Amino acid sequence: MNRSIVYAFAFATFAAAAASAQAGGASSPKMQIVVSYGDLNVASEAGARALLGRIEAASRKICGSEPDIRDLKGHGLYASCVKSSMDRAVASLPQPAVAELYGERTLYKVAQN
């Protein structure tokens, strides 16, 4: 069975965000990436982790290059883009194990900060 998810992301490169703000809030272009997971048993923890890794890689690709950590505004926009992309992708999956693992992972990251 060839399972995959397709989800749209706001293309949040910082140049596009800046241009949008200057243009009076025009909507940013959309991109899609297909993330296949037919080779994974997403009911298992290992499979769910692997799928989350693929979703994160796709989210990072859509959101562009990660800015230098010293660029606080740019880094914040990038992190927000990645998180919102992952949130939408995980929410679109009919896989409770993936959603549960993602929720635990998100709570862990918040607790670290």
How would you sum up this structure, described in words?
With 113 residues, the protein is α+β, with helices and mostly antiparallel strands. It has one domain. It is built from four helices and two strands; from the N terminus they run E-H-E-H-H-H. The protein has helices at 14-22, 45-63, 72-91, 96-112, and strands spanning 4-10, 30-36. A two-stranded antiparallel ribbon has the order 1-2. Helix 2 (45-63) packs across helix 3 and helix 2 (45-63) packs across helix 4 (96-112). It is elongated.
* Uncertain regions spanning at least 5 consecutive residues: 7-27
Query: What integer is the average pLDDT?
Result: 76
Q: Would you list the SSEs in sequence order as H and E?
A: EHEHHH
Strand order of the largest sheet: 1-2
Total domain count: 1
The count of DSSP E runs of length 2 or more, i.e. the number of strands, is: 2
Radius of gyration (Å):
15 Å
Biggest sheet statistics:
2 strands, antiparallel
- The helicity comes to 55-70%
Structural class: alpha+beta
| Discrete helix count | 4
Strand content: 5-15%
Q: What is the overall silhouette?
A: elongated
What is the straight-line distance between the termini? 40 Å
